[in-house]
Amino acid sequence: MILNSKIPEGPIEKKWSQHKFEMKLVNPSNRRKHSIIVVGTGLAGASVAASLGEMGYDVLAFSYHESPRRAHSIAAQGGINAAKNYANDGDSVNRLFYDTLKGGDYRAREGNVFRLAEVSDSIIDQCVAQGVPFARDYAGYLDNRSFGGAQVSRTFYARGQTGQQLLLGAYSALCRQIENKNVKFFERREMLDLVLVNNKARGIIVRNLKTGAIESYSADTVILATGGYSNVFYLSTNAKASNATAIWRAHKKGAHFANPCFTQIHPTCIPVGGDYQSKLTLMSESLRNDGRIWIPKKAGDTRLAKDIPEGERDYYLERLYPSFGNLVPRDVASRRAKEMCDKGFGVGESKMAVYLDFSDALNRLGKNVISERYGNLFNMYKQITDENPYETPMRIYPAVHYTMGGLWVDYNLMSTVPGLFVLGEANFSDHGANRLGASALMQGLADGYFVAPYTVGNYLASEKLEKVTTDNKEFTEAKENLKLNVEKLFSIKGKKTVTEIHRELGKIMWNKVGMGRNKKGLLEAITEISKLREEFWQNVYLPGNANDVNAELENAGRVADFLELGELMARDALHREESCGGHFREEYQTEEGEAKRNDKKFAYVAAWEFTGKFEQPKLNREQLTFEYVKPSQRSYK
Amino acid sequence: MKIFLRVWRQKNQNEKGNFISYEVDDVSTHMSFLEMLDVVNEKLVKRGEDPIAFDHDCREGICGSCGMMINGFAHGPGKGVATCQLHMRSFSDGDVIVVEPFRAKSFPIIKDLMIDRSSMDRIMNSGGYISVKTGGVVDANSVLISKPDSDEAFDAAACIGCGACVAACPNSSAMLFVSAKISHLALLPQGKIERKERVENMLAQMDDEMFGACSNTYACEAQCPKEISVKNIARLNREFILSKVC
User: B86: nearest CA in chain A?
Assistant: First the structure.
């Protein structure tokens, strides 16, 4: 299959405006006749559902949560980027474009990234108009701070709860459309299958998590905004329910999965405690504005932080990267932290942590300023660790946080299945091999407010869509298959719980498909995952029944999908014989231990096609061309 | 340490529920309360029993999914934390811990500790927004907002919609929840335009959902995981009077 990215012709700064002009429109009075399914109501899903509803389309929005306000976008802490240049420090659309492309280690499309930078300003305007209480200075203007991988202050923030405020903004816009009956919201519904009619996406099958009923819904087009798949690692900063089921099942129906191995390991998370640990907690990257990362100069130093004098501390990021210092991109900061701990310089009981120290900033700015900037994060840290970061440095360690990979989409955000659009973290589009901090919120909202409302309309105006109802055999068959699948899960009656198997998968993924990857480990991972998958289908145990609230059944479906996706991630990592961004193959590094790309062989998007057999996914390549930015060895020195 | 749980088990909305006791050994003080429940549930599943159903997701105190009455307090004994942020170090060896769902007529029980809070969403639908369309808005810095106003609006907007205020209130009132949204939007110039309709519609919906009235016990503020101030309720009342007289 030849992948056509559909990037419009013309100069990069004109592509999007020209494309918008050329797209077909649906007459306002005809929009009501078109139904659109939106799955997931986080930032991307809520914003697109609200925007399409407002335009007059008949929108059906689905969430496995009880309310859109529970989506995991709510947990994003630090901020959202935009090229406003309010700080007058040299920012521009071009610079945001350049930083994002470079930050992604030149594995994203120029056209997409430029559009993202271009619409970034409108997002801030939109959110302020909705009443999002961004931080302001004493003159009443919006305030900014810096994030990793940038030398300008372009990040807008609402204390350490930016995601919450942006999601509540999108949620409120959605509430208004629900009240106006333009959007119908279906709570506690988990999408279990995508339904194609005449090769076009025309509906979904969901399980009603309250009653256990399997339900079908049809529409003219389907939009997935179901987030990322970090939970394949079991322990991650994602919410417990975050899963890959919607995109994975769409993949099995023909949507290509792009760059599955591109995962982001966030450098500043609270280290793992015990075996019972259920998830990891992020400490926002914004902390690196004022916190300094250090380790003892002596390996195996057991002294407390306060007993180690200044001269015996190694501020290794400042030493190795003098121009970006503590604000190097996430992949670099994570890798260095792992390297230091592997060499025995780690701190704390487990020795798998480094210090993030605020004492200089506290002395310089005072406790009030620091608490205003990071108060909720400091409280959160204290809650979890029982240590006070105002008095003693935080202990931090990298953790899986975000997945740059996702379903392949063209410039219109449409997947390889006609009529199936994919938005936000669920697609692969804009972050290349590494996402910069504060860019996830930007992308989710860009897709939802400013891209998809145009491109979805264009699709509906261009296609002839025959009438489809849930009585079509495609729906009834899919429904039957799902019921059989559920029965099969209950019939296994094995000895292991779903969580036990998920934990084992997580261990394989973290050790062999995590921060450092190599051929031997990846080959082992593939074998181990496929064995574990076999074991799951022979030895898993589910309590209760399907006609009731059953969290174990929900989880079983998700873990079954992770067991398939995990293998594809390992295969993708194995085939990409280079290091780029968050994908670090130990065999391919510079003498200084930086990622060594191979642009000649790997400057492409790897879009995997499901062939029916996990051991033989088909690789399709979309070559990346760079006309405006010349790929170079990323340097943050 | 060892603890003794008494957990409310209820099969569904229609059947009667009751307390069931569980002894939990080997509880680490570093565990979060929900991780302790995870351990209990793993054991129940291993024994072929139905695990305790409870809502949870982010486990960092921001999504508002979790929420249970622990020893009679919404989200338990910690101040300013959601259930997921409560750690077992807040308890002692041998403690009896009583766990119930948030109880209110407007929050029907779905199963065990899971409740239906869609009544709160319907209040939001009735007016918890600024009626702005996507696109076509002014530059973000063209509307200046004083820092104190902006900060106060943020304090109110920090509400996570968990329903603890309702559960804590002897009248099952949702006044703190509603007032947080009213305050957030009324304090901002963008939100002032619709302030009258907003407060009237949201309060009318609150009544329709059978939430009680406020009698100033302040139990809501005391048990709110985000420490939302009851001053917001005073502001809501002012807004409501204003809507009637002007």
Answer: A383
